[in-house]
Design the sequence.
C-alpha cells in the first residue's frame, strides 16, 4: 500500500472508529452497509485487516460473513453490512 493509500485508509479507520464509538456510547440502533474494499477473508494474512476487525467488530455485528464475490479462482468479502443493537430491536 502506497503512502497516500495508507493515509486514506488510516483516515477512514480513524473516522469509522469515532463513529462506532458515538453509536455505542449513545446506544443507537444502526445498520451500516458499505463496499469498503477491506478484504475480510484475509484477516489472518493482513495486519491491517486484522486490526480493522479487532477494533470494529468488538462492538458491532457483521451480518455478511461469507464471500460476496466468487469466481472459479477467487472469493472475496469486501461488502460489509454491520449492525449494532438491532437484535433486541427486532424481537
Sequence:
Amino acid at each position: 500500500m502506497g503512502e497516500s493509500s495508507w493515509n486514506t485508509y488510516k483516515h477512514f479507520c480513524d473516522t469509522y472508529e469515532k463513529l462506532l464509538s458515538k453509536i455505542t456510547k449513545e446506544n443507537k440502533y444502526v445498520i451500516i452497509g458499505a463496499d469498503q474494499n477491506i478484504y475480510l477473508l484475509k484477516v489472518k494474512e493482513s495486519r491491517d485487516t486484522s486490526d480493522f476487525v479487532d477494533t470494529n467488530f468488538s462492538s458491532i455485528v457483521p451480518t455478511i460473513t461469507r464471500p460476496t464475490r466468487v469466481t472459479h479462482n477467487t472469493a472475496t468479502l469486501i461488502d460489509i453490512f454491520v449492525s449494532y443493537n438491532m437484535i433486541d430491536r427486532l424481537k
In short: Residues 3-25 form the longest helix (23 residues).
